[in-house]
């Protein structure tokens, strides 16, 4: 499965996958909320962030977008992207050069706006989404999977399940992704055994199960 990978780099690749997926998923929801604030419901953004356990206030759609991306809260997009960049730097030797360059470019896209105090709009978000799509393409276009690829995919899928459950999205889809997580963990930890989950199980139990799977690789 390719060259040996250090434990530190494996953890960084896993969190790179998680943070990139979190940024992408939240940007999609933020963009939808932004549109709805304009045309449907002024409180759409408040409702979104309540699901994340965050209270926000804004006067209009433009202010909502700026708070979502640069606001003083745990899920601001710029901070999450900075975490992705930090993990990419730690694991740089295991990341394709084009993908690494695109991650740095994506961070600079936000950094420039933050440093210059620019007000972001839908065009800014669209550009960011295009860059993220490029990054995923560059990270996954190889025909042969290496160990480092599995850690990135693992992080992406774990975050996908996490955010689907936390934001009360399609639970059936989350369970399908859980099967993909199990298949990846089985490759990285062949002796691991996993219990399947059903749609009737509590979300917290499913999330705990994910954490236990990850601990078999990241911790053990």
Tell me what you see in this structure.
The protein has a domain at 7-155. The chain is globular, with a radius of gyration of 18 Å. It is mainly α and 220 residues long. Helices cover 71% and strands 0% of the residues. The mean pLDDT is 89.
Name some characteristics of this structure:
mainly alpha; 220 residues
Short description:
The chain has nine helices and no strands. The chain has 220 residues and is mainly α.
Outline the fold blueprint.
Layout lengths: L6 H33 L4 H8 L9 H10 L6 H14 L6 H19 L6 H19 L6 H20 L4 H18 L14 H16 L2
Helix pairs in contact: 1-3, 1-4, 1-6, 1-7, 4-5, 5-6, 7-8, 8-9
- How many helices? 9
Largest sheet: none
Low-confidence segments, ≥5 residues, pLDDT <50? none
Radius of gyration: 18 Å
Shape estimate: globular
SSE ordering: HHHHHHHHH
Q: Given the helix and strand composition, which structural class is it?
A: mainly alpha
Number of strands: 0
The residue-averaged pLDDT reads 89
The percent of residues in helical segments reads: over 70%
Distance between the termini: 20 Å
SS strand fraction: under 5%
